[in-house]
Amino acid sequence: MRARPLTILVTGGAGFIGSALVRQLVRGTEHLLVNIDKLTYAGNLESLGDAVSAPNYRFEQADVCDAPAMARLFESYRPDAVMHLAAESHVDRSIDGPAEFIETNILGSYTLLECARAYCGEHVGEALRPLGQGGFRFLQVSTDEVYGALTPDAPPFSAAHPYRPNSPYAASKAAADHLARAWQHTFELPVLITHCSNNYGPCQFPEKLIPLCVLNALADQPLPVYGDGQQVRDWLYVDDHAAALWRVLQDGTPGRVYCIGGEAEHANIQVVELICGLLDRMAPGKREGSYRDLITFVEDRPGHDRRYAINIESIAEELNWRPAESFETGLEKTVQWYFENSGWCERVRDGSYRGERLGLIGDVRGSG
User: Fold this and answer.
1) FRET label pair with 10: which of 140, 191, 217, 336, CA 20 to 30 Å apart?
2) Residue 135's domain spans which residues?
């Protein structure tokens, strides 16, 4: 007997990682994807592309902190799974204003966990069945930043690494992870937790390093690099991350933590120099000389972690997942996308994408 299509609530589905996940699942499966997004500054419905017109896509504008709204969506859609990606995620913004991070990342996660627990009700034990056979899953999508920083020679983070968050953003995500784990342990809610490394790829909001440098370079503006630029990150192509999340949701063991990385450690200055080299080849006529001439070192931000890296052996062995993209192939695709999608970039940078939302929402909102 053919398994019925699932109904999956994706919170933050208009954000960078969320939109990549929705695009991938809408195009590649028959499952119903319900995109729940508050549409803060980082939520952009244009990032969903033609997924918005697919028959297995719905959009609901709602805040994950709004308990009545979340309860209504659980009741209306009767989901088989929640993939919780909605979060405030920019470290600099968390330093300037931590309150929104505390509210969205902690209170929002608590609200969803409680709605999921009420939804499973007295039959929470039955939720442990496989998906498609009456089971339920709650996927808490987190970050490697909850583990703090690594020294240059330390082994990469694994699921056994102790939590040592160093920024308000990381602390808020750590708190959300602890809540998810507690709801699994105390209430037997089938929770899975993932920790990912730095994502990059198309449709990323241009406050992040890679899109910021690409767009600044094309506009002949300085390429700001914090401190000495030697902060090391493990870079993960966003489509690889989306594929890993789907694998964890389908085949992961409730109560387990899965680390997802790109196996691509690079210092920030190396990343910027690689971007400049790609643009020297793709857009040589945009300026005289190399784009490297635009690199500008600026004062480091407070508490800037020196190195992150993820050990993916557990997910590779248990779930047979590894990234498909190398950093070189993924970065070239990413730079090419920004170079070829100037309209998307301009609307994000000048803010006009936010003014168009009412029309977009009217076109794609599901009836619930």
Assistant:
1) 336
2) 7-199+237-263+305-325+351-364
Residue 35 within any structural domain of the chain: yes
Please give the Cα distance from 73 to 295 (Å, whole number).
47
Look at residue 106 and tell me if it is in a domain: yes
pLDDT of residue 357: 44
Active-site positions read: 144-145, 169
Task: Count up the domains in the chain and report the number.
Answer: 1
pTM score of the predicted model: 0.93
Residue of 194, 207, 92, 97 whose CA lies nearest to 138: 194
Q: What is the pLDDT of residues 304-348, one digit of tens each?
A: 889 999 999 999 999 999 999 999 999 999 999 998 998 888 888
Q: Could you give the CA distance from residue 160 to residue 156 in angstroms, rounded to a whole number?
A: 11
Residue 1 domain-assigned (yes or no): no
